[in-house]
Amino acid sequence: MSTEARAGHFPAVDWNGGAFPYRVGHRKLGMWLFIVSDSLTFSALLIGYAYLRASNNWPTPFPFYPSIVFSSVMTFCLLSSSLTMVFGVSASAKGDKAGARKWILATMFFGAAFVVLHLIEWKHLLDEGLRPFFLPEHWAKVFTLADGTPPTALFGATFFAITGLHMFHVATGLIYLAVVAARVKKLKHEDVEISGLYWHFVDLVWMFVFPLIYVLSVDMHGALGH
Amino acid sequence: MSEGNHEGVHRHPAPTGFIRKYIFSLDHKVIGIQYIVLALAAVLVGMIMSLLMRLNLSWPGTSWPILGTLFPGGAPNGVMNPEFYLSLVTMHGTIMVFFVLTTAPQGGFGNYFLPIQIGAEDMAFPLLNMLSFWVTFVGFIVILSAIFLSGAESTVGPIGGWTGYAPLSALGAIAGPGQGMGMNLWIISIAIFCVGSLLGALNFITTLLNMRTKGMSLMRMPLTCWAWFTTAVLALLSFPVLLGGGILLLLDRLAGTSFFIPGGLYVSGVLSGTNPNFPLHTGGSPVVWQHLFWFFGHPEVYIAILPGMGATSHILATFARKPVFGYRAMVFAIFAIGLLGFFVWGHHMFISGMSPYSAIAFSVLTLSIGVPSAVKTFNWLGTLWGGRIRFTTAMLFALGFVSLFVAGGISGLILGQSSLDLAMHDTYIVTGHFHLVMGVASIFGMFSALYFWFPKMFGRFLNESIGKFHFWITFIGVYAIFIPMHIMGIVGMPRRYSQFTEYEFLKGLHPLVVFVSVAAIITILVQFVFYFNVIWSVFKGAKAPDNPWEATTLEWNTSTPPPHDNFAGVLPVVYHGPYEFAVPGAPNDYVMQTDSGVEVTSGNGHNGHRH
Question: For chain A, which domains are there?
């Protein structure tokens, strides 16, 4: 077959297959597709949350201090981890593998801090009496409407389900980053970049969870006497 | 050239040991066959369940001694319990939809032929491919285990139907026999299946976008590839939503939450909150489950049928010896169907109490799917028009697909109107409708694909005489089963009831019910002839040459069966569209995609159309 001679005859209306000069690699495309699909899982949970919140008497029990301040610190940790990840990927792009490893370890430090703070917060709420299936008694009393409608126990269900799934993603990401950090000398730059994609995605999910779950649940009127 | 095309990461040497070659294989061809075998096993289970359901519907109260021996709890003295029947409904639906209609068309034929048809050596992620099959296999084992471990002697699984509607599915054992452990196993199986499908979808999309060989532009791909690609996109976007819903449902059952459980429920004589077996639930909404389920469930219908549409287009063109009529329109129709499929889930919920205004929106969007569906149907007819048709078994099944798609789709126009659906939703017309259009049409697409590609896969033909016998009895049989169901539905026969003999207004229908059962028994018996044909032909069928059907696409360029890396080290270069039949001036009546010696001035695919 005179393949090369014939190849020139292709009309330039669209790309003819083969190695597209601008294509992304298999693994990077795969990660993007995973991110698309995973964002739909979170969307399903958040839309279910919105539906249930709109159709119930929803308690707003989080005081500005300590709840929102505390979760803002968590947010700050996660945002910082994204920044360090950017530096890590950038170092890797320049071929500075040792630098990339340091920045990834810094990312893991902030990520781990997020998980630890999150668990402290969970313990605090559990101690206060919040469960996936009922509210603390004093919350139930305070947020009962004038017509006697009690606040819904779904507050705890959505809180633990959504933040739990997110925390699971962060924890998985920590393991992923640990593997990348350990093997960074053997990995291609693109593999480091892909781990960065995942980490930024997890961070981005939190940027939806934080306002929708925390900020929208602030005790604006000081009903709980904070 | 091949180095330039691919990263080389997926290059794996041909394995030698039995386990690496046939069990934990990385080869997309072996994995494709594994999926097909899984589907053939699953369809056998699902089919036997439907046989038992028909026996109970037409001859209620009859004693079937073998049933009494196998399931003493579910069929004491061989007479089926109503709960036993309901669990058959659930398991038949679940096994058929997930483990047959989702595995064979996409995981099976897609896995085997997508890489070959685009000129790739394998899928982009062979390891992920192997994992997606084995994850799916585990899901199948879990759903089978529900037959024996449903937690109730009297059932073979949960009794709530394949849609797992809450609150019945969310309450636990108190909701009825089989709703305890049986329902847990059901959700776990479906969640596992979701993960397997997601891995598969990711792999398909990456492979198709990144690994096409030189000259294989998007508009030169066979329509099968377009269908598998669109199906993969649908799976990627719909399964995660079901996974999310499944997680919440499992939390409702195991963690005591109330996402899908409203307050004040009184179930099996117990009020919510007054009994340790039925803790207090308030505030949840069963409609949320329905939204999440059907946001997945409707695209799932297209996941089942789009590969059949692709195979049908491919096979009609090959045996009509004509280019596919309106290739571009076919591509856009596939995409339009896929896209619209995401905006119509509400038509499954017209009677769930949602706002009539949203029902109108869902109704209009649903009916608009008729447009791309009609484009496809007329283009199939246009492809056949004036062709020199070769009536092989594969061609007959492809023609059967078109027939069933139209016959089943017409009633969709009725059911898609919210006002008519109010009356018909819970009757047999829905059963008849979706079995024709989604169940049997998809299966016909797969039969067609199997008869067509079997020679390439195994190097031997399926027996054509047995095949034609199989086709005609099945084709007449499925119409005899499902068309009468439309009549039953209009009369008002409710679906999911275990028997109808108690209702005065349905007594006149009993002969029709018996007729359907007899037709079903005959049709099911003929499928065993098909199974025999497959097994016999793998070993004893007539030997097939490399291109027995004189077809044009890349899978017919390679040897039969294809070597481990599909093209023996030299990737093909593509010069033509996929369906260059009857090209004026060409030496044969077909021009292979790789045929560089033939000038096709205005061809099928991106060069425009020739008629």
Answer: 34-217 (1.20.120.80)
